[in-house]
Design brief:
By secondary structure, the protein is α/β, with parallel strands linked by helices. Helix content is 43%, strand content 24%. The strands form 2 sheets. The protein has an 8-stranded mixed β-sheet with strand order 1-9-7-6-2-4-5-10, sandwiched between helices. Strands 3-8 form a two-stranded parallel ribbon. A hairpin with a 3-residue loop joins β6 and β7. The model has no long low-confidence stretch (mean pLDDT 85).
Length: 186
C-alpha cells in the first residue's frame, strides 16, 4: 500500500504536435474503455475527436456510469459554445450525464476510473489538446488518490446544473426558428 511504504506509483505522459502518437488521447481512450464501474471527467472544454467520442458512448452503453463536468463558456450564439453543446447532446443520448459548473472559474483537467486510477494534467478533453498543444499528464495508480479526486468531483456537483437533452433540443429549435425569421424566411 502506497501510504505505508511512501511509494506512489505515477506515470508521466506527454504529447504534442512533434509526436506521431497522440499519447494523452490514447491514455484517455484506454482509461475510458478499461472502466468497469464509473468514469468521472472534469475539463474546461469538450470537443472530442471520434475515438474519444466513441469510447465514451461505448462505455456508457455497456453500463459504465459516466459523469462529465465542464464550464458553460460563451454566449448562446458563440460557435464554441454551440459545438460543445452539440457534443453534449450526442453524449446525453448515450446515457452520459453532463454537468456545467456555475460557481466561477473552472479549469480542472482530470479523469478517474473505478476509484482506482486517475489522471491530472494540462490536457483538456478536446482535439487541440490531443493533437496541437504540448501537454503533460500524471497518471496516478493509487486508489486513495483516485477516491479523493472523485470526492472533489462529487463536491463540485453541488455547484453545477445538469445538461438536459430536452432543454437543449427546445433551445436549439428556437434558435433555428429565430435565425430563419432573421433571414426573411419566417
Amino acid at each position: 500500500h502506497a501510504a505505508s511504504t511512501g511509494y506512489l506509483p505515477i506515470q508521466i505522459t506527454t504529447s504534442g504536435p512533434d509526436s506521431q502518437w497522440a499519447a494523452i488521447r490514447q491514455l484517455y481512450f484506454l482509461m475510458i474503455l478499461a472502466a468497469k464501474k464509473h468514469v468521472y471527467i472534469q475539463s474546461p472544454f469538450f470537443i472530442p475527436d471520434d475515438s474519444i467520442s466513441e469510447a465514451l458512448k461505448a462505455a456508457a452503453l455497456s453500463g459504465v456510469e459516466i459523469k462529465m463536468m465542464f464550464t458553460p463558456r460563451g454566449t448562446l450564439y458563440s460557435l464554441p459554445y454551440w459545438a460543445a453543446n452539440t457534443y453534449f447532446a450526442d453524449m446525453a443520448r448515450a446515457g452520459i450525464r453532463i454537468f456545467l459548473y456555475q460557481k466561477g472559474y473552472f479549469h480542472p483537467k482530470t479523469i478517474s476510473i473505478d476509484s482506482e486510477v486517475c489522471s491530472v494534467g494540462t490536457a483538456n478533453m478536446d482535439i487541440r489538446s490531443f493533437s496541437i498543444n504540448y501537454e503533460v499528464n500524471a497518471i496516478i495508480y493509487e486508489s486513495r488518490i483516485a477516491q479523493e479526486l472523485e470526492q472533489d468531483f462529487q463536491d463540485d456537483l453541488k455547484h453545477c446544473t445538469e445538461f438536459k437533452l430536452e432543454e437543449y433540443k427546445k433551445r436549439h429549435d428556437e434558435i433555428w426558428l429565430n435565425l430563419g425569421r432573421a433571414d426573411g424566411d419566417g
